[in-house]
Amino acid sequence: MKKKFLALIFAAFAAFSVAAFAACDEEDDEEKTTIVFGTEGSVVSVQAFAFTATESVLSMDESTSVYDYLSALQEAGMITFEGYESSYGYYITSVNGIEEQSEYNSDYTSGSGWSWMIYTSLYELDGVTYATNEYGEFSYGGIGMGQASYGVSYLPCVAGYSYALIYEAWSY
User: Fold this and answer.
1) What pLDDT is stored for residue 171 in this prediction?
2) What is the spatial distance between Cα 153 and Cα 142, in angstroms, rounded to a whole number?
């Protein structure tokens, strides 16, 4: 039931994402968006921050990470975020004041909550897989994205590719 509910949320979110976000370019600012869905008497608020990487925000080279790009956006006042370094790279715990939430049982064998997940249209580069649709898909401006396999500090930021931070429910 939970998987069907989440699939319904993502399908509805993808359907509305084209209208909900504007690409970041020299003329447009990032959009901070809240979308509310009602399903079976429940209301779910989905928070997202999406952008297409451009040289107008940050001069990029092969070593530029999504963390570097987000830091430039934060310096420009377009986003705020917090987190910590992990074995997968920088792990984002808060975006624009919205913090992750989680609950676990006493032995941590089950839990649930909301976390910030990174999605990207950069599926593969130089033989390295950076995203997969196995754990989730997202559409931004008509561009499909898969959930990133790396944290933002290990995920390359490449001009023309799109990235999204999605506040997503999870459980196990």
Assistant:
1) 86
2) 26
Residues of the chain with pLDDT under 50: 1-45
Please give the pLDDT value at position 81.
Answer: 95
Exposure string of 8-36, with b = 16+ CB inside 10 Å and e = fewer, is: ebbebbeeebeebbbbbeeeeebebeebe
CA distance 85 to 133: 24
What is the pLDDT, as a whole number, of residue 46?
A: 56
CA distances to 12, 17, 139, 145 from 9, in Å: 5, 12, 13, 16
Structure token digits, residue 24: 């970041």
Among 157, 141, 155, smallest CA distance to 57 is for 157
Q: What local confidence, expressed as pLDDT, does residue 88 receive?
A: 77
- β strands within 25-141, DSSP E: 31-39, 42-52, 81-86, 89-95, 98-99, 101-104, 111-120, 124-125, 128-129, 131-140
Residue 160 DSSP symbol = T
Which DSSP state fits 26? S
Rounded to the nearest 5°, which phi and psi values hold at 144?
-80, 145
- Reported as a single tens digit per residue, the pLDDT across 146-163 is 999 999 999 999 999 999
pLDDT given at position 92 = 95
β-bridge partners, 103: 112
